């Protein structure tokens, strides 16, 4: 039976090209992804980026960047200052800007990396050859080379070379740093606009570093519906959400740090063993045992537990499907506006 199900899934789902964006097979919880992404699905979020930066801190802080080798013409998104201007400069500091990694060098220069969905970092021996098609760039230091790779065929990861803190600030979408915010500030940001919780948490202009995976985990921990509207939340629910955001991000950062065991973090993925709901469609909820549900849209899905989060209500049931004329909204925004149109 399993074999039959597998072949029909493979036949029906053209996921070879979009697998790292829409890792269908991982979401089934049973099938292995046949695409090169394998374990590299999902955009790195705050915990992943923090652990990357800590690993970089140990390896490249106060080290001289000898050379930058770019293998993909799509990677570099700025022309001025020239890339060569960073060569021979010492790394002075490292920062996270939303989901970006910013490397500060002498002369107020910044190298800013956005890994997007399939970009990953690796630490290799100095001067390693760039043989893989997935390698986009190498940043060479005396003691090692930082490699940037991107799985799949789309080239979305980006590198900006900037001069000055103002240029760096201009790249910041301005999301609230949730681990630094008190509940009042968190509440004000949350209720500034009326959105579904899922959208509010993942909007980089509202909150920094939270994406699809950790927002699922946060909402499950807070026992709140992904489609609850932010301006209708009670004070007690906002406090619970604030606590869940902090606990989820801190716990996962600690966990990923411990997993890395001082090594450079490899195998960064949005689908982690130990997640409660994200990527666990149809598996039992760790709190109540009910099957995890999902809401699907074009290139992503939201996972939740109906018993723990929505009072037992299925958000993506057949009735809603018919209502949508057998189609799902293509984006969270579209889905949200459709909900907004309902009484
Ligand atoms: Zn549950």
Summarize the structure.
The chain is an alpha+beta fold. It has 11 helices and 11 strands.
What does this structure look like?
This protein is of the alpha+beta class and 343 residues long. It folds into 2 domains: 46-170, N-terminal domain of MutM-like DNA repair proteins (Alpha-Beta Barrel); 183-341, Helicase, Ruva Protein, domain 3, CATH 1.10.8. It is 31% helix and 18% strand. The chain contains 11 helices and 11 strands. It has helices at 2-12, 24-28, 46-60, 165-170, 183-190, 197-202, 212-222, 235-260, 306-309, 318-323, 332-341, and strands spanning 64-65, 67-70, 89-97, 100-105, 109-114, 119-124, 135-141, 144-150, 158-163, 293-297, 300-304. Strands 1-3-4-5-9 form a 5-stranded antiparallel sheet. A 4-stranded antiparallel sheet has the order 2-7-8-6, with helices on one face. Strand 4 (100-105) and strand 5 (109-114) form a beta hairpin. Helix 3 (46-60) runs parallel beside helix 8 (235-260) and helix 7 (212-222) crosses helix 8. The longest helix has 26 residues, at 235-260. It is globular and about 60 Å long. The termini are far apart. 39% of the residues are buried.
**Strand-residue proportion:** 15-25%
CATH domain class name of the largest domain: Mainly Alpha
Q: Which series of helices and strands comes N to C?
A: HHHEEEEEEEEEHHHHHEEHHH
User: Which strand order do you get reading across the main beta sheet?
Assistant: 1-3-4-5-9
- Which shape, going by the Cα principal axes? globular
Count of extended strands:
11
Distance between the termini: 42 Å
Low-confidence runs: 1-40, 318-330
Structural class: alpha+beta
How would a crystallographer describe the biggest sheet?
Answer: 5 strands, antiparallel
Listed once per kind, the bound small molecules are: zinc ion
CATH topology of the largest domain: Helicase, Ruva Protein, domain 3
What is the CA-atom radius of gyration, in angstroms?
21 Å
The CATH architecture category of the largest domain equals: Orthogonal Bundle
Number of helices: 11
